[in-house]
Amino acid sequence: MREWWVQVGLLAVPLLVAYLHIPFPPPPHRLSPALHSWKSSGKFFTYKGLRIFYQDSVDVGSPEIVVLLHGFPTSSYDWYKFWEGVTLRFHRMIAPDFLGSGFSDKLRPHHYSIFEQASIVEALLQHLGLQNHRINLLSHNYGDIVAQELLYRFKQNRSGRLTIKSLSLPNGGIFPETHRPLLLQNLLKAGGMLSPILTQLMNFFVFSQGLTPVFGPYTRPSESELWDMWAGIRNNDGNLVIDSLLQYINQRKKFRRCWVGALASVSIPIHFIYGPLDPVNPSPEFLELYRKMLPRSTVSILDDHISHYDS
Q1: Which terminus of the chain, N or C, has fewer Cβ atoms within 10 Å?
Q2: How far, in Å, CA of 195 to CA of 186, rounded?
Q3: Could you tell me the strand order of the sheet in which 163-170 lies?
């Protein structure tokens, strides 16, 4: 009940501000040293005239290649905490910023779709000359859905540019029927007159208070980490496309049969890393459905993702 009232309060504040025509103060745009280092060490490639940012590690470790697909509404910077540790174990780590996220281009108006994001991942691997390699996918949240579309294409042999060796999925709404979006997410994805008002007036306080409840009580980000997330969103006015990106929730429902079906029917190893305190994918409903739909896959119930990631 308390969380519900917090969400109502978060929505009431920007609406009141809009009514009174009192603008929020502009947020700081300066990147933290860590986020600046992440950007400066990354690269860009062009997809249909669009600049897409990505990280690509040096060739060390085992001969395995891992592609990391980040969540919503953040960026490839999601992976920075264990980037160094995982790169010591694998030959190559590649982590793009999806279109509309992080340091990639943020178009508006634009119809953001999971299909386009999957095509961008394929194009990146082709750009890097890896189209004939077997790829391990590690995804999260929004990235889970992109991974499901890539898995569907792999199963159907539609693109022929990505061969998936394994798939690991930390928490994400892979089943629409067990996913519980927050009130703010529901209002933004509705696409009505309220959405552009909320995105225009969103500030760090609204963002941080809206995002923090998505984390479990023991894994919530620090204030400095939230500022880094917000700086990535604010880059190129990315807050103005959040409602467009959130259409993935509607797409997930519409194409459930294809994407869930791909998970259930492929023969590659699939491993799910589940945080039992996830408020938007509640247990036991989620785990019961997962084990019913994917009886051959494995599940780890834990908080520490890196030590249990195994391709």
Answers
A1: N
A2: 10
A3: 43-47, 50-56, 92-96, 65-69, 134-139, 163-170, 270-274, 298-301
Geometric angle at alpha carbon 31, from 229 and 206, rounded to 5°: 35
Element (H, E) at 205: helix 204-211
- With 0-12 / 13-18 / 19 or more C-beta atoms within 10 angstroms meaning exposed / middle / buried, residue 157 is exposed
Assessment of whether the complete model's pTM goes beyond 0.70? yes
Q: What is the pLDDT of residues 87-105, one digit of tens each?
A: 777 778 999 999 999 999 9
- How long is the chain? 311
The structure tokens listed for 32 are: 């933290």
DSSP codes, 156-193: HT-S-S-EEEEEEEES---SGGG----HHHHHHHT-ST
Q: Which tens digit of pLDDT belongs to each residue from 103-148?
A: 999 998 899 999 999 999 999 999 998 888 889 999 988 999 999 9
The three-class DSSP label of residue 134 is strand
CB atoms within 10 A of CB 267: 7
